[in-house]
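## tool: complex_structure
## caller: assistant
## args:
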Amino acid sequence: AQSVTQLDSQVPVFEEAPVELRCNYSSSVSVYLFWYVQYPNQGLQLLLKYLSGSTLVKGINGFEAEFNKSQTSFHLRKPSVHISDTAEYFCAVSELNLNKFYFGSGTKLNVKP
Amino acid sequence: GAVVSQHPSRVICKSGTSVKIECRSLDFQATTMFWYRQFPKQSLMLMATSNEGSKATYEQGVEKDKFLINHASLTLSTLTVTSAHPEDSSFYICSATTGGNNEQFFGPGTRLTVL
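## result:
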């Protein structure tokens, strides 16, 4: 089974500052990697995904993530955050050819004015 | 494209009653649908995986007789919480996949409150 670790449960940051949300996973096989955002009382919205190819993945809302196989990490970054980015962010992994997703515990991003 | 809806968005019921939640893929055919449960301030916990026309596969610790899942068509799956109790109160989220690239498309969730 996979495990996904999001080290930071909460990340406070000021508006227009850069942010990095960390995600590490454990797996002995190749995986697909995802970041989702969840606004209060809503479902999950896909931010970006890594399936193969370039390790730097660009997503919606100015977010990007870099897959680092040697460090088994997939950290999410944004160079300048906005108040509207305040939400909870989930990292997820899925083994190739399997449908099962494993989610991290989530990181609550709180952008302050 | 790839929109998943859930109905109802919120439901309040009395203890002992049953509640049905629908999950629909609106613009694609979903070979597989998933049901998750999310407790406050926690991550999503996979409850079960369902494929159209076959019995759902439940995760360890999830009571299949309490959480009945039906996947009657390629666009509809239902979760019925039978004899609901207050501890069943939670946010239930479904997702659907076409099978390609493993990407799952999530519904907006259903907030269940059992009094």
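## assistant note: The interface with chain A takes residues 4, 6, 32, 34, 42-44, 46, 49, 91, 93, 95, 97, 99, 101-109, 111 of chain B (CB under 8 Å). DSSP finds no helices and eleven strands in chain B. Handing back to user.
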